[in-house]
Every structure is written in C-alpha cells, then in structure tokens.
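Before the break, one more example. Copy the sequence into your notebook; we will annotate it together after we see the structure.
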Amino acid sequence: MRSNVSKLLKESWTLVEDRQDKVAAYFYARMFLTHPEFRDMFPVQMDVQRARLLGAIVSAIQDFDDPERVDDYLRALGRDHRKFYVEPQHYAMVKSALIEALREYAGEGWSLSYEQAWSDVYDLIAAKMIAGANEDTDPPFWYAEVLTHERRGPDIAVFTCRTLQPLRFRAGQYVSIECRYQPRLWRTYSMANAPRDDGTLEFHVRAVGAGWVSSALVRRLKAGDLLKLAAPMGSMTLDQESRRDIVCVAGGTGFAPVKAIIDELGQFNRTRFVHLFRGVRSRDDLYDREQIDQLVARHPWLSLTRALSDDADFPDAEHGNVADVIANYGPWPDHDFYVSGSPNMVSTTLRTLAHLKVPSTRIKYDTFSYT
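Here is what the structure looks like once it is written out:
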C-alpha cells in the first residue's frame, strides 16, 4: 500500500518537474489570491522564497516511503512554523493551492489516483506538523541580543548572541534566524557551541552570493542588534551511549555544528578518538585556522586533516575532494560519522561512505536544501 502511494507521488511529479518554477508561481498566486492574509506571513522579496515552501512540501511528500526518518523532522518543522503564527486551518488552505497548481500544470496526465495520493500524504504530513506544534510549550521564537560580531574573512563572520529567555538545544542542532535588516526572511544556521551556563550562542555565517540574510548577518549585523531565533531543529547530535570512535566531516562553515559536538565531547570525553576532516576549496576558506589548531592541541583525542580541492600548493594538507581523502584514510570499520556542509558536499560524502560499507545507522547529517 505504502509503496504504491509512493510510486504514484513520484510518477505524478515527473509530469511537472520541468516546470517547477511555473508550478511555484501558480501555487503562491492562487494562495495569496484566495487568502490574502497569507501574504503578511511571507517576505517582501519572493525571488528565493518562491521555491522554498513548495520544495519543502514536495520533498516531505516524496519521502513518504521512509516515514520513520521524517517523523521527527515533521514534528520539529511544525514547532518551527509557530514562528509564522501558522494555525491548523492554514494547512488545508495550502493543500488546496498545491493540488490545484499540480493539476493545472500536469495537464491531461493528471488522474484522480494521483490527486488522492497527494491529498492523503499531505494530510498525514500536516497532522504530524500540527501535533508537533501542539506539543510545544516554548515560545514561537526567542529574541536574542548580539554580543560580538567579527569578520573572519571577506565573506565570513562569527558572532555571538544571548537569548532573552532560556533556549534549550543540543550540540549539533540548528535554528532559523531572522534579523531586522531582512524582516520575515528566515534562514537556518547551526550553533557552533554546546549549551553554556551563560546562555551564549555562537554562529558561523558565510555570505553566499546575493543571499539576503547571510549577507546582512555578515556585513551589517552589529553588537546590540536583536535577532529572532526559532525552535532548534536537527538530528546531528552526539550519541552519548556509543563507545565508537568518531569521524567528523565538515565543509566550509559546516564546521559550526562539528565544533559544537567537539565542544560537548570536551566536557567528558576520555576514551573516544575523534578524526576531524575539514574540506574546503582553497586556503582562503580556512577561516579560524589558528583557533582550530589550538583546539586540537588542547584535546589529545582530537586529530585534524585538512583537504583542499582547488589549492594544490597549500602545505600541511591533503589535496582533493574531502570524500576521496576520507576513503584514502580508511577503512572505517567501527566509527560514528557526523557530516556537515553544503548539500552537494554532504551527498558526495554519503555516497563515498556507502561505497565504504559504513552502515547508514552510524551516519548523522543535516542539510538545509529545503529549510
């Protein structure tokens, strides 16, 4: 039954996949026309946002054949959506616009079977998100004051902040952030530290292209500014019951959640060796190099291997894709893996680990391609 529904979903998506941009435009136009009050939930600039909600819905629906993997994520997503003041009745309104957009662009290939499959699975997803929101007793979002802001490169900043109310999270998780320079635009960033007694949080941000939020956080944010932080999400958290050694793979500012995990281990670890592989394109991407060397020197159980894919002259590093470097350093018969970076870097690393026969149950990762 479940496999048949999954087949119907994926079959029907092929009817519109090459017209995703038009489906998204129709979806939002229909939703805002029918329910104009929705417009205030979304940012003024819709260029990037246009594909985000639709992409998240489609991704979740197409992952229906792996319900256990997405159950916790959907509940967390429901808690996260409280920051938009989403109410249970809104889900049915979004569903109507989604199915109408799919029906419009699928054309004659659309069928009642396809429509029923999308309807049923959307209802299941909505129920899990609503349940997650209803279970949550925390505020919809937290205000946080920026304490420090430092540029660590032309397009990289590290800043710290403290929430005005306590925020509970685990090392390796991430939150959505909104700043006053781009109201109603939320983007996800990982905390770069384990929970601290003083409640401070550290974030590493790279300004990506014309990214509205990342550019503001790198180039305009300053001490004293107030941010909004949504509910913590993510499953790339430390398994404290495991006794296996650990391999951490970090690309770019994907080092942030890995640093948080190392921070947590530093509080109690005595027996587990941690191999950190840091993969970047060139030496210019190796921000905080001295601080990381000091971290390695402080923990005898921590080792570091740098991998540069496009900088063959840089000394004291491996050269090539970080996934290939990991394969050369193997085998890894009994290790826990934590992988963080761009979606492309994460997927390449996961393929390599699968080829090395590392069980998927020992690999933790988060990507933000649909957040």
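The longest helix spans residues 112-135. The CA atoms of residues 132 and 278 lie 35 Å apart. Try to locate both features in your own notes.
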